[in-house]
Specification:
The chain is of the alpha+beta class and 986 residues long. It is built from 29 helices and 33 strands. The strands form seven sheets. Strands 1, 2, 3, 4, 5 and 6 form a six-stranded antiparallel sheet that branches. Helix 2 packs antiparallel against helix 8 and helix 9 runs parallel beside helix 10. It is extended and about 160 Å long.
């Protein structure tokens, strides 16, 4: 059809088939409704955020108020208020506070009494803050009062103040506005809003933006502020210049401040506009879809377009050969021709790109380092060269898939500094380089030198390009060089000899060690300026010319040495030994001079010579015989005293042994002693019979000591000998008299000790008897009166109103009873009552006694009693013994309340005697306490008189028996009491 020979005409015709106008109208209406709905949601959210910020600010003001109340409480303490340290205390509060920049204590007229910004009240004149903005010229303030914004005189920053009345006047705290601003900044981080705090008059208190804080913007012209002053929280739009705001105002509870939350609607409407455009696009797509449906009715139009699209897909897949039959539409045929041209051009460009890309990759991979590209500020890799696998061993895909790959593989000790430096230099738009360590896949630590280029777009760094170079080998070489230098320096300075390093040609000193400076007492520069020749002043055997000659000798032969008198920097002379050696240091010929102070060695040699002379004189004149035996047991030294004792001269004894000379034929027992001496035994002292040159037998005392050389090897034996024949005879007679005298003294001593113990015991018992008589007469009667009075009080004070007196009366009765028991113990011990023995079956008797005894519930009692044996006893006296023993065991448990308490009582017949055994697992007694328990008046308790055990012992011994105590600390005590059996007992 000629009408449709043009694609433009065909599409126009088909679009007329689509009802585009109604669709667009309905779509735009829908968009407007959505816009209104979203705007209502934004208003509600803005108001909720304003109220939330108001609550946060209220919490902030409460915290500030509480902190100032704590300061008020401290001031209320008169001692601290009068202290000169009050200013320091206020300064410490400000230093540790998150809010205050200064605190002042004012009098009733607003003058400063104490301040956090002055060391003492006398340090500077009294300040006058009566005109402070907080007071506004009006006194007094009745409660917590907040000021507007002002510039702090301490920090020079915007501040607000809180005033609080105190008994002394007022407590005023200046609060850093930025501390309140941080609260607003946190609120403004969510939703992109601006948050401010203002007074009811519109004056700005604080804002989330620093520009508004510095400018002191007024909100008096905002309509929402005017409505909020009337007590109504509101949300309204406000247009100011080019800004279109949605502002919400809310009251801060319990204050005269308002919270203003402003949302820049210009930015807020961008998402809504984008949504509107998106919906319009969707509606246009719907119209196009309708048009396509209409076009489908025209087969002749669809076929060429489909074929053209198919061919275009082939081009996209890389098949650039393109053939197209005429479609009958001029536009489609023209498009087909253009696509054919484009296909050819794409083919040519693709071949060129492939070639260039291959060249680029070959170039990048040929670099001996990792070429990389990174996104900033996320530090995510966009490109990494293949060299990364060779250097670190990680597959390339891990560099891309792991967003934090560089941070994970960088050594954790280097990461913070490397990342911070890279970020700092990038933000400065500066190319940079730095070094750090990375962990390779095989665990190696690789040093990387990173060369970084910063890519800037729109005045912001967006990408980083760079090359990572492996500098591990260089690092190791530098470290090895540093260690070698350090080792050389430590060895050089560690030697105790002074070392000079001279240039072999010029003689100039190149270096000296620390020992040189110490030896010659000179600084390093002075030692380098002159060298060893400078310190060669002194007397023979060395002079300066001879020293220079020795240097020439060392240069020619390699070594030289000599001794000389050296001079220190302070002029002091000392003997030194110098050893010179030729050496090559750093490819340079050097002469090394090692100087050693030998003053002490020369002094020691002289002292050794003098000591040898004195030793020889001492040996020759000593009264004891001194003999030095060789390892072969022959004489190497024989002094005159040995000649006087044995009659042999030194010439006669040298090289001879003792067996043919001074040891009699019948005594040849010195071999074992000699063997011990040669193995190092120093205790070979003895008395032996020896023979003189004339054949006389004498008694000699020998002191033998092995002699050792400097290496510790035994080189012989030194013997000191003395003729004690006369002394032995006198000692033999004296020994007889000594033995007789010692036996006589021992007998007399035992008699005196027994008499003394008996006398002490009688005196102690006499005193105890007198004390008992006095106590029983003078205390027992008053105790009876006290007991009767307590009984009458207890009977008279019955009733609920006197219930609180029951416990004190019971304690009083118990203590009266305790005093009476103590008197009874004193009487029992001092009277020595006569024992009235009667045959008694002790087993059943003990069972009855245990049944009558009160045993606490926490004590585990076990007994095993012999029920057939009959023993003659005084049952009342024995009862007192058992009560004392069991009571002591129960009282011992009080000292170990944490362990399981066990009490065991048993009886048995052993070796013609009857034994009663009482054991407890209490704390036990030490050996010192156990040794004194039988002493009267000895006790480890805080109560009682210490007569319990002595009474037990007296009663049992008066029956012909006894008692034994066995105890161990931490394990308990066992008491074994025994009584003799009847002659016919079975």
């Amino acid at each position: 059809m000629p009408l449709l020979s043009s694609l433009k005409r065909a599409l126009t015709f088909n679009f007329l088939l689509v009802a585009a106008v109604p669709v667009l109208f309905l779509g735009l209406l829908n968009i407007q409704l959505m816009f209104n709905y979203q705007l209502d949601g934004v208003r509600e959210r803005n108001m909720l955020q304003a109220k939330s910020v108001a609550e946060e600010v209220r919490s902030f003001l409460d915290e500030v108020h509480i902190d100032l109340q704590l300061v008020e409480a401290t001031i209320a303490a008169d001692e601290l208020l009068q202290s000169a340290r009050m200013n320091n205390h206020l300064a410490s509060v400000v230093k540790n506070s998150l809010f205050f920049d200064s605190i002042y204590l004012l009098d009733a007229n607003g003058k400063v009494l104490q301040s956090s910004v002055q060391a003492s009240p006398q340090a500077q004149p009294m300040l006058d803050l009566s005109e402070h903005q907080l007071f506004k010229g009006e006194f007094p303030i009745q409660g917590p009062t907040w000021s507007g914004t002002f510039m702090s005189p301490v920090t020079g920053e915007p501040s607000i103040a809180i005033g609080l009345p105190v008994p002394q006047g007022y407590l005023l705290g200046n609060i850093r506005q930025r501390s309140l601003g941080r609260v607003l900044e946190r609120a403004s981080q969510y939703g992109g809003v601006e948050v401010s705090i203002i007074e009811t008059g519109g004056a700005l208190i604080a804002s989330s933006t620093s520009e508004m804080n510095m400018q002191g913007v007024s909100f008096a012209d905002h309509p929402s502020i005017a409505m909020a002053v009337q007590g109504q929280d509101t949300t309204q739009e406000f247009i100011q210049g080019t800004k279109y705001y949605l502002e919400s105002v809310a009251h801060i509870p319990d204050s005269k401040w308002l919270v203003w939350v402003g949302l820049n609607m210009s930015n807020m409407l961008v998402p809504i506009d984008n949504m509107r455009h998106l919906l319009i696009g969707v509606m246009i797509l719907a119209v196009l879809l309708g048009a396509i449906i209409a076009i489908l009715n025209v087969r002749r139009l669809i076929q060429p377009l489909t074929l053209l699209g198919h061919r275009a897909g082939q081009i996209a897949g890389g098949h650039y050969e393109f053939a197209f039959r005429p479609s009958g539409f001029t536009e489609i045929d023209a498009l087909a021709n253009q696509i054919t041209s484009m296909s050819h051009a794409i083919k040519v460009r693709e071949e060129s790109i492939i070639t260039n890309e291959q060249r680029f990759r070959d170039l990048v991979n040929s670099i001996d380092g990792i070429v990389w590209e990174m996104e900033y500020p996320s530090f995510r890799f966009l490109f990494v060269s293949r060299q990364a696998e060779n250097l670190l061993g990680y597959p390339i895909h891990k560099w891309y898939t792991d967003a934090d790959f560089w941070e994970h593989k960088t050594h954790q000790d280097d990461l913070p500094q490397a990342k911070a430096y890279c970020r700092m230099m990038t933000e400065k738009h500066q190319d940079h380089d730095f070094e750090y360590r990375m962990s390779a896949a095989d665990g190696r630590i690789v040093w990387m030198h990173n060369l970084v280029t910063v890519v800037i777009e729109n005045n912001r760094p967006v990408r980083l390009l760079g090359v990572m170079l492996d500098v591990t080998v260089q690092k190791e070489l530098l470290n090895e060089l540093s260690r070698s230098e350090q080792n050389y320096r430590e060895i050089f300075n560690a030697t105790s000899d002074a070392i000079f390093i001279h240039d072999a040609v010029s003689g100039q000193v190149m270096d000296v060690n620390q020992a040189t400076l110490n030896m010659f007492a000179c600084p390093y520069e002075e030692a380098l300026s002159g060298g060893i020749v400078q310190f060669s002043q002194g007397d023979n055997p060395s002079i300066r010319e001879e020293v220079l000659q020795k240097f020439k000798e060392a240069q020619e032969t390699g070594v030289a040495s000599y001794e000389w008198q050296a001079r220190r920097a302070n002029g002091e002379l000392f003997w030194a030994e110098v050893k010179l050696r030729s050496a090559t240091v750093g490819n340079q010929q050097r002469i090394l001079a090692a100087v050693r102070d030998i003053s002490e060695r020369r002094d020691a040699a002289e002292k050794i010579r003098e000591a040898n002379e004195r030793l020889t004189l001492l040996i020759d004149r000593m009264p004891l015989g001194c003999i030095f035996w060789s390892p072969e047991f022959t004489v190497n030294m024989w002094n005159p005293a040995a000649q006087a004792i044995f009659g042999f001269t030194e010439a006669e004894m040298l090289g001879k042994g003792p067996y043919d000379t001074i040891i009699p034929e019948m005594t040849r027992d010195t071999e074992p002693i000699w063997d011990r001496l040669m193995t190092g035994d120093k205790s070979a002292h003895g008395v032996h019979d020896n023979v003189t040159k004339r054949g006389k037998i004498i008694t000699c005392e020998w002191y033998n000591t092995p002699a050792r050389d400097i290496s510790g090897e035994t080189i012989g034996v030194i013997s000191m000998v003395q003729d004690i024949s006369a002394r032995k005879t006198a000692e033999s007679e004296l020994g007889k008299y000594r033995a007789q005298l010692e036996e006589l003294v021992r007998e007399r001593t035992e008699q005196l000790q027994a008499a003394q113990q008996e006398l002490v015991q009688k005196e102690r018992l006499a005193v105890l008897g007198q004390l008992t008589a006095t106590v029983s007469h003078e205390i027992r009667n008053p105790l009876g009166t006290v007991a009767n009075a307590l009984y009458l009080l207890k009977e008279s004070l019955k009733g609920q109103e006197y219930a609180h007196l029951a416990r004190p009366l019971t304690l009083a009765e118990r203590n009266v009873e305790r005093c009476d028991n103590i008197i009874s113990e004193l009487l029992d011990f001092s009277r020595q009552r006569k024992i009235q023995k009667q045959p008694l079956a002790i087993g059943p008797w003990l069972a009855d006694l245990i049944g009558e005894f009160y045993i606490p519930g926490e004590v585990q009692l076990h007994w095993a009693l012999d029920s057939h044996t009959v023993v003659p006893v005084d049952s009342e006296r024995l009862r007192r013994v058992m009560i004392n023993v069991i009571t002591n065991a129960l009282q011992a448990f009080d000292e170990a309340p944490d362990r399981v308490q066990k009490l065991e009582i048993s009886s048995r017949t052993v070796d013609e005697r009857y034994e009663i055994i009482v054991s407890d697992n209490g704390p036990g007694m030490s050996e010192e306490v156990l040794a004194r328990i039988y002493e009267p008046m000895y006790s480890t308790k805080t109560f009682g008189v210490g007569l319990g055990v002595p009474i037990i012992k007296n009663v049992l011994e008066s029956h012909g028996g006894g008692v034994e105590y066995h105890s161990e600390v931490g394990k308990g005590t066992t008491v074994v009491m025994w009584l003799p059996l009847l002659a016919d007992a079975c």
